[in-house]
Amino acid sequence: MISENLNSALAIIKTQAILSKKFDKLNIHGLGMSDFIILYLLKNSPNKQCRRIDLAVKMGITASGITRLLAPMEKIGLVDRQSNTRDARVSYAVLTNAGERIYEEAKITAEEVAEEIFSSLKKKNHSILMEVLNELIAKFN
Rg of the Cα trace of the chain? Predict the structure, then answer.
C-alpha cells in the first residue's frame, strides 16, 4: 500500500508520459515537445526574445540544459543567440522568422493533440484540473 500523495505523484508522472507520447506528433514539424515549448515562450516574450537563463527557469531546467536544447534550434535557424551590449555575461535567445513560422504550423498540431486529450473532460473537471495544476506550479515556481 502506498500513500495518497505518492499515488498522486505517480498518476501525474504517468499522465506526463502519456502526454509526451501524444505530443510526439510535433515530430512532423521537426520539433520535440521541449522545442515547441521554447518557441511558445519566445513567441510570447517581449520582442520575441528572452534571457537564456530566464528561459531555463521557465523550462525548469539548468543553464547548461537550455544551452543543449537551443544549440540544434540555432543550427537550423529557429532561434538566434544575441549578446547583451551592456553585459557580456548575458545572452538572449531570439525567435527568428523561420522559428515563428514553424511554431505557428506546429501550434495547429499541438491544438489538435490537446483537443484529442482534453475534449472528453467535462468543463467543470477541466477547471478543477487547471486549478490543481496551477497550484502545484505556483508552489514550486
Answer: 17
Q: What is the pLDDT of residues 52-98, one digit of tens each?
A: 999 999 998 999 999 999 999 999 999 999 987 787 778 999 999 99
Are the C-beta atoms of 91 and 52 separated by less than 8 Å? yes
| Cα dist from 75 to 15, 56, 72, 96, 121, whole Å | 32, 19, 5, 12, 40
CA angle 116, 122, 22 (to 5 degrees): 20
Which SS3 state, helix, strand or coil, does residue 28 take?
helix
Q: List beta partners, residue 81.
A: 93
Encoded amino acid at 20, one letter: S
CB neighbours of 103 closer than 8 A, spacing ≥ 6? 36, 39, 40, 43, 95
Q: Nearest to residue 59, comparing CAs of 37, 42, 79?
A: 37
Q: Determine the Cα–Cα distance for residues 81 and 71; give it in Å rounded to an integer.
A: 9
φ/ψ of 10, rounded to 5, equals: -65, -35
- Helix (H, G, I), strand (E, B), or coil: what is residue 27? helix
Helix, strand, coil: what percent of the chain each, to 5? 70, 10, 20
For cell 522559428, name the residue: 99
